[in-house]
Write a structure and sequence with these properties.
Helix content: 25-40%
Number of strands: 15
Number of helices: 13
Shape: globular
Oligomer: single chain
Largest sheet: 8 strands, mixed
CATH architecture of the largest domain: 3-Layer(aba) Sandwich
Strand order of the largest sheet: 3-2-1-4-5-6-14-15
Bound molecules: nicotinamide-adenine-dinucleotide
Radius of gyration: 21 Å
CATH superfamily of the largest domain: NAD(P)-binding Rossmann-like Domain
CATH topology of the largest domain: Rossmann fold
Low-confidence stretches: none
Strand content: 15-25%
Distance between the termini: 22 Å
Structural class: alpha/beta
Length: 374
Amino acid sequence: MIIGVPKEIKAQEHRVGMVPAGVLSLVQQGHEVVIQQGAGDGAGYPDAEYQHAGARIVPGAREVYARAELICKVKEPLMEEVPLLRKGQILFCYLHLAPLPELTACLLEAGVNAVALETIQSDDGYLPCLVPMSEIAGRMSVQIAARLLEREAGGRGILLSGASGAEPATVTVIGGGCAGINAARVAHGMGARVTVLDIDSRKLSHIDEVYGGRISTVYSDPESIHKSVTGADAVIGAVLVPGSKAPQLVTEDMIAEMRPGSVVIDISVDQGGCVATCRPTTHEHPTYRVHDVIHYCVPNMPGAVPRTSTQALAHATLPWLQQLASLGFDRAAARSAELCRGVNLYLPEGQHRSVISCEPVARALGLECVGIPN
Ligand SMILES: NC(=O)c1ccc[n+]([C@@H]2O[C@H](COP(=O)([O-])OP(=O)(O)OC[C@H]3O[C@@H](n4cnc5c(N)ncnc54)[C@H](O)[C@@H]3O)[C@@H](O)[C@H]2O)c1
């Protein structure tokens, strides 16, 4: 199969869909890899390394999309990339379609077979391609909150760890999954007073066990959220209902009750956000204030650490990429339930338009879901 890797064009997105080691392994399996010139520059992978691994370098995105049967990228295509997609082409990237009706409509019209990395899921609920980015976003969220709490950045002027004779900051993490537990771990390590809220009691008891009660765990309901949010110096939103729009758990009234200069980081902004006052921002202009509370809502946080996140991402996605390349879309989806859950859109045989095959995405957009035939 011919696999194409375009350069990401989303604002401040420096990750790339494949590292040279991935190229080598695909080429050794008999596939061809086409990479856009400079695609890996931002992550520290020059063209020469891809070439050495056996990739063909082409000057522009147009050539990549025109040649490849499978497009391997990081973020969802931007509107200007959609016309480059071809009917029946496989699109393999993060998509987060639930809050994106316009893009979904265009991709359906384009007739692509789209695998969303964030919904590839094993039987026990594990999300192998989301986990590495959630780990990174969770860890980053605390270093960002620490900086924003500094007076110079407009924050309350609080050091996360406190100091001798001065109290530490209070950090509330909503959602104790992968991003949440990593945020809690770093915040705890920096000396903050941390509370994690979740509706999954297994997650809470795991955290309680690992940290011997040094991180508080609380069942998530409107009352506990109200108490933990309004008293916090920093709130980190990290909830997920796979494929669906994030539930809005933090109301504007709660934000208004927070102390001026407090910080909200909504990691779940890529699924619409769990904070009512959340709207997507960019690495260029990452923050805004509502009721004097600093909001940071960047949907591609790991893009700021492209070397680390490209390495983590490329290794997590390679096995799925290999399956798709070796078996083709239909056989790979039929053979692997995990990969099949990742398919959000597919082009039925003989049709010109794709259909939605991921139930939570279809529900969020009020559209029909059509299961993939086995
Ligand atoms: N902004 C970014 O750059 C970035 C990067 C990576 C991941 N993410 C996003 O972060 C979010 C979290 O991802 P994850 O991998 O940690 O997911 P996860 O599935 O591991 O964890 C989500 C947690 O939310 C909990 N949850 C669901 N409903 C809840 C509720 N009402 N109250 C409290 N908790 C609730 C779940 O029980 C689960 O433990 C996702 O939306 C993901 O797409 C964003």
